[in-house]
Design goal:
Chain B: Belongs to the ETF alpha-subunit/FixB family. Chain B: One of its GO terms (biological process) is fatty acid beta-oxidation using acyl-CoA dehydrogenase. The complex is a heterodimer. Chain A has six helices and 15 strands. Chain A is an alpha/beta fold. By secondary structure, chain B is an alpha/beta fold. Chain B has two domains: about 170 residues, Rossmann fold; about 120 residues, 3-Layer(aba) Sandwich (Rossmann fold). A seven-stranded parallel beta sheet of chain B has the order 7-11-6-1-4-5-12, with helices on both faces. The relative contact order of chain B is 0.12. Classes of the chains: A alpha/beta, B alpha/beta. β11 of chain A pairs antiparallel with β13 of chain B, so a sheet runs across the interface.
């Protein structure tokens, strides 16, 4: 089995967002593997353990992303590739084309990714990639079984469960509940230092510069209106409850 | 030049989903006066939708009705939608940011080589340019985006764009014969409707949410009872999901769902940053927690310091009384 994982490095979810010079400040920020991609990495390693083969992790992003890739190698991935180039930008269309250009020349059975990234949150890249490679996908999966060139996946559809069968190769995006990602072990971390982590730029890929012009652009960035602390409702429980219900009904008129 | 905006309708149990009406409003917000609204409806046994569709002020409604489209199948739906796109020739396509929309939109975007802006919460016209607002970092910040090319694709977050007034429809309905793709590699074998009859969490007007303070799976029962009385849905924090008190599909936060209901009632939730990202844009936030220092109170409109197992059942009783 040749198993590929497409990964992104993101802010830790406990980070606050601060702006500096009209951009999100990266000062002192803790970076993690995008939590949904971490499920994808774990699933890839489990499938390799079960069926044999190799796990390759690919990321498009800035240089710092190599740290997250190194972590995936420590978890048990075999090789990692970072495609880093300022010409790529952050448009989902462009990133998926870069990934497709890299993967187009590879042989793969499974491609796994996260359901969405916790920073941008668009959830486009993996599915666009499946289209560009002309292979099927199952999004938001909580279970994956592989046998006889086919995959059976459970897809979480807003709480409903869809049981889907696809022929391989195919793309899957990982939803919470798919597995419990492992922590890298000490021997794993030691081994990861010797595993290949390649860095490429656009010149290494067969892609036209014209395909990289972004189709969307950001024009502004803002913080949400700060929610002010409201009021505590005091008194005996029964009184508190009565008062709350009245406030919701008559002051706020929401119920 | 007259532009065409195509809304991809979603329906469930024989009715159009609320997000479809929101998408129609989104189409109005992203178009000029003479632009045209088209609506695509994909599925099977769509007769029950004739009436709701007739109250939509669209130029055209495209129907693709086929047994193979009974359930959402990404490949089949993308093929069907592509047929509608070829017939409609839209400048913009709008879907809901729902289980189907999130899956179908990027497929279509890649198929027609379009830019896509996902999870849009607001649309405005600034200097003759349509500007889309969307949350990033699960709502810790917002960005405004524009398209640099056409056609474009947008998914809108449920519950954020107010719905269009119903009007006298004049839409011409066109049936399109589904052309089944030669190779369909995806088979939907079974669908387990866990949510049948329940209010969808992302569309709910009221969300009653539990955290670690709920202490067990059974502890969610009083929350469900309160949600039922209010016609709302139950959600949870990551703490409660990680502790196996409930299913991950209920998780609200930066991992999990982002919700923006009218009322969010947080029970036994401390208010970690990652949870707050998923609910802080709710209109009214009520927090019930034993710990008066819990960070959730910093963003709550109303706070009750107390034991949720006392407060929540009393709330349910009180609402039963006053709501009859």
């Amino acid at each position: 089995m040749d198993i590929y994982v497409v990964m992104k490095q993101t802010f830790d979810t406990e980070e606050k967002i601060i702006f500096e010079d009209g951009k999100v400040s990266e000062d002192g920020v803790q970076y993690v593997i995008n939590p949904y991609d971490e499920y994808a990495v774990e699933e890839a390693i489990q499938k390799k353990d079960e069926l044999g083969g190799s796990v390759y992790v690919i990321a498009v992003g800035p240089d710092r992303t190599s740290e997250a890739l190194r972590t995936t190698l420590a978890m048990g991935a075999d090789e990692a590739v970072l495609i880093s180039d300022e010409r790529i930008g952050s448009d989902e269309n462009t990133i998926s084309k870069v990934l497709a250009s890299y993967l187009g020349s590879k042989k793969f059975d499974l491609i796994l990714g996260g359901y969405f990234s916790v920073d941008n949150g668009a959830g486009q890249v993996a599915i666009r990639l499946a289209q560009l490679l002309d292979i099927p996908h199952v999004g938001s999966i909580t279970k994956l079984d592989i046998s006889d060139g086919k995959a059976n996946a459970d897809r979480d559809a807003e709480g409903d469960l869809e049981q889907v069968e696809v022929t391989l190769p195919a793309v899957f995006t990982a939803q919470q509940g798919l597995n419990e990602p492992r922590y890298p072990s000490l021997p794993g971390i030691m081994k990861a230092k010797r595993k290949p982590l390649k860095q490429l730029n656009l010149d290494d890929l067969d892609i036209e510069e014209t395909e990289l012009s972004p189709k969307t652009a950001r024009t502004a960035l803002s913080l949400p209106p700060q929610k002010e602390a409201g009021q505590f409702i005091k008194g005996e429980t029964a009184e508190q409850v009565k008062e709350l219900v009245e406030k919701l009904r008559y002051d706020e008129k929401v119920l | 030049m007259v532009k065409i905006i195509l809304v991809v309708a979603e329906h469930r149990d024989g009715a159009l989903r609320q997000v479809t009406y929101e998408a129609i409003q989104a189409a109005t917000l992203s178009s000029a006066e003479n632009d045209q609204l088209h609506v695509a409806v994909i599925g099977h046994q769509l007769e029950s939708l004739t009436e709701p569709l007739s109250s939509i002020d669209a130029e055209k409604v495209y129907l693709i009705d086929h047994p193979d489209l009974q359930q959402y199948n990404p490949e089949a739906y993308a093929a069907a939608l592509k047929q509608v796109i070829d017939a409609s020739n839209p400048d913009g396509i709008i879907l809901g940011h729902t289980a189907i929309g999130r899956d179908l939109a990027p497929m279509i975007s890649a198929k027609i080589d379009a830019g896509q802006i996902s999870d849009v919460t607001n649309i405005e016209n600034i200097d003759d340019q349509v500007v889309f607002t969307r949350p990033i970092y699960a709502g810790k910040a917002f960005e405004k985006k524009i398209f640099r090319s056409s056609p474009w694709v947008v998914t809108i977050r449920p519950n954020n764009i107010s719905i269009a007034e119903p009007s006298d429809g004049k839409a011409e309905v066109e049936n399109i014969d589904y052309a089944k793709p030669a190779s369909l590699r995806t088979v939907i074998q079974n669908v387990v409707r866990n949510t049948s009859g329940k209010v969808d969490l992302s569309e709910a007007k009221i969300v009653v949410s539990g955290g670690r303070g709920v202490k067990s799976a059974d502890g969610f029962k009083p929350l469900q009872e309160l949600a039922d009385v209010l016609g709302g849905a139950v959600g949870a924090s990551r703490g409660a999901c990680d502790a196996d008190y409930c299913d991950y599909s209920l998780q609200i936060g930066q991992t999990g769902k982002v919700v923006t209901p009218e009322v969010y009632i947080a029970c036994g939730i401390s208010g970690a940053i990652q949870h707050v990202a998923g609910m802080s844009q709710s209109k009214i936030i009520v927090a019930i927690n034993k710990d008066s220092e819990a960070p959730i109170f910093k963003i709550a409109d109303y706070g009750i310091v107390g034991d949720l197992f006392e407060v929540v059942p009393l709330l349910t009783e009180e609402f039963k009384k006053v709501l009859g």
